Amino acid sequence: METKTQPQTMEANTMKKQRMSGSEAVMKSLLHEGVDVLFGYPGGAIMPIYDALYHYQEKLNHILTRHEQGAVHAAQGYARVTGQVGVCFVTSGPGATNAVTGIADAMVDSTPMVVISGQVASPLLGTDAFQETDVVGITQPITKWNYQVKRAEEIPEAIAKAFYIARSGRPGPVLIDITKDAQFAQFDFEYKKVKKVRSYIPKTAVKADKVAEAVRLINLAKKPLALVGQGVVLGGAEKELMAFLEKTGIPAAWTLLGLSAMPSDFEQNVGMLGMHGNYGPNVKTNESDLIIAIGMRFDDRVTGNVQKYAKGAKVVHLEIDPAEINKIIYADVPVVGDVKDSLPMITDMVSKTSHEAWLKEFKACDKIEKQKIIDEQLFPTKAGLTMGEVVRRVTDHYDDNAIMVTDVGQHQMFASRYFKFKQTRSVVTSGGLGTMGFGLPAALGAQLGQPERPVCLFVGDGGFQMTIQELGTIFQTQAPVKIILLNNNFLGMVRQWQEMFFDRRYASTELVNPDFQTITKGYGIACEQVSERDDLDAAVKRMAEHDGAYLLEVKVEKEGNVFPMVTTGASVSEIILE
Amino acid sequence: MKQEFTLSIYSENHVGLLNQVTTVFTRRHINIESLNTSESAIPGIHKFTIVVFTSREQVNKLVLQIEKRIDVIKAYVFTADEIVHQEMALYKVKTETLLNSNEIERLVRQYGARILEVTKEYTVIEKTGHKRETQELFDKLDRFGVQQFVRSGRIAVTKLKDELLSNYLKKLEKEKSLLD
Predict the structure, then answer these.
(1) Could you tell me if the ipTM is greater than 0.85?
(2) Are A203 and B178 inside 8 Å of each other by CB?
(3) 3-class SS at A72?
(4) Which residues of B touch A (CB under 8 A)?
(5) Does the reported pTM lie above 0.90?
(6) Using CB atoms, which residue from A141, A196, A327 is nearest to B177?
(7) Which range marks the domain in which residue A222 is found?
């Protein structure tokens, strides 16, 4: 129904209502929320929105990916390196279902995202119309919040609420499903940012008595160990973390998602936790008398057998999500709140100490790990290239300043163990969900989010082929991503488990691969292949110095294994070195 | 050690909330013994009363996960002795059986039930009480043949002096909201 636009009048209040379509309201709302880059793929049910986007191309840079899964992963990569909300557009039906994997990934890894999906016109809802799916029902368990908009009037508030929820408290993905008729309808637009939702408390004030109790335990502890998780990065609390660690002298180990929250070369950084983490942090956990968990959730990859985890230690748990307290591990002192608030409170009250002798014990473990595992990985004597040595050459070349993006598998573990970090927000990897195919689109998103920093993607031949079509997006955007393809012609991680636990029955793990060089060239991207150690350095240099995207395919040893390893059901102190 | 718990969950009155709440139970494989949902005394706020049989440790975790849903305002857990609760049951019997002896009549009086409707073919009896009582009446009536039987969900109010939700809402309004 068309009505004449109201004539513009000079009014005292600044929030004048403007007449426009739902689609244009989406554009204006996104701009109000500070969006400048978004990813997506058009389709029938979202065409009106794309039509409105056409007039906003200067202000809203839309990146057309080659699959909706790529769009969501790219938005995740963007969000991880910038701290902003990742935004994507997908159409109804298969467009929305293609986005499900990425949305689930963002949910488990607490990445702030707003996904806007087109939906069939409201009279068609529930009629099994063309490209209709119940995306709200499907994504309900994997979104922080979702909502279906059937009237244009609801659009501004829905989007404002979506951004508020996505970025506040423990971040997460939000999906807004907009019917086609709502996209077309005209209404009077007015934007109000959402600052409060009655039924939602993003974070609570840190309780002084809990802080006092935590401080008491920290002061008394003889063998304290700090566990550093993504909460530090999400809260922007890197400085507060360093202040706390430097004052107390406590050794600190990071989780996979906590990587780069502190510098790699920090004296008290004792390495990575987890199934394939470093020897020291895993073994010493069960000797500790106080675990200080900072923005981490005791994921099963980190704890190993929960019955045999840190039994000799009291636990102080600094965490913003109350539901995580006591979920897996009992917290003697839960300190609920944003670590950016709780850490300085603790640092203020805690005594200045050092734990030199305790820290030395970790270094002793490092020596053992170096001798039994690391030296062989980084300085191998045998012919075949190891993944570890490739990773180390790359990070060395960038002087530890590059952003590391990985796909999922053995290469992910090697990269996390051997890449080095000097600044925060330098890691993009799929932790909780372990989504193969995450790497390539995420690297693209990361590069667009941090155009000034080098982005190095480590990906295996398996994961690479899951989202290989995004090479097209990289070509179209000219994003200068450096792709290091670690090719062993195997689904490495699964093969390792088959070797260790299934008597080397390699069922469906050997990959018959195409010529990756030809494919990459077909996508207009520079590339080369290396299989000899002597050629590696020069190749890495060529990749780094090339002005634009580059794929360096490295043929690595076929049956390399990641060690150390905490096997299923084992305690973290039962970590094996070979 | 498992015991019976009654959860009172308050949420915004939006489409799809029931599913959002119940999937929290399904995911943890906790059976819902009884479920009632209706508008609470406060307009715009919906109340769910859910009975489960589980351990204290499990139900505490459950409550926190339920409160994580954006549209859920607050969830409370009570044991049976902390609440005053009722449920309703309807029993349909053949009127012929009712008239044949005075047994059914006697049971109705004994259990404080009432006759809701009488027709030539059937009579509907209604009883309000605890599950144990409605179950007992059913077992006794079934000796004569109960044609249809239905039990409602449990509804409950707390024995506490304070009204938890109203206090909570007032606290929310007074407290300075933490802007992120």
Answers:
(1) yes
(2) yes
(3) helix
(4) 11-12, 16, 19-20, 23, 27, 60-61, 64-65, 67-68, 70-73, 169, 172, 177-180
(5) yes
(6) A196
(7) 208-361
In eight-state DSSP terms, residue B38 is E
When the candidates are 3.40.50.720, 1.10.760.10, 3.30.70.1150, 2.40.10.120, the CATH number that belongs to B86-154 is 3.30.70.1150
**Element holding A175 (H helix, E strand):** strand A173-179
Q: What is the pLDDT of residue A4?
A: 44
Pick the CATH number of B2-83+156-174 from 3.40.50.620, 3.40.50.2300, 3.30.70.260, 2.170.120.20: 3.30.70.260
**In CATH, what number is assigned to the domain containing residue A541?**
3.40.50.970
C-beta separation of B19 from A137 below 8 A: yes
A527 within 8 A of A490, measured Cβ to Cβ: no
Task: State the Cα–Cα distance between residues A98 and A107, nearest whole angstrom.
Answer: 16
Cα of first residue to Cα of last residue in chain A, in angstroms, is: 72
| Distance of residue B167 Cα from the nearest chain A Cα, in angstroms | 14
Instruction: Dump the DSSP string for A107-162.
Output: HHTT--EEEEEEE--GGGTTTT-TT---HHHHHGGGSSEEEEE-SGGGHHHHHHHH
For the stretch A506-544, pLDDT in tens is: 999 999 999 999 999 999 999 999 999 999 999 999 999
Cα–Cα distance, A236 to A158 (Å, whole number): 27
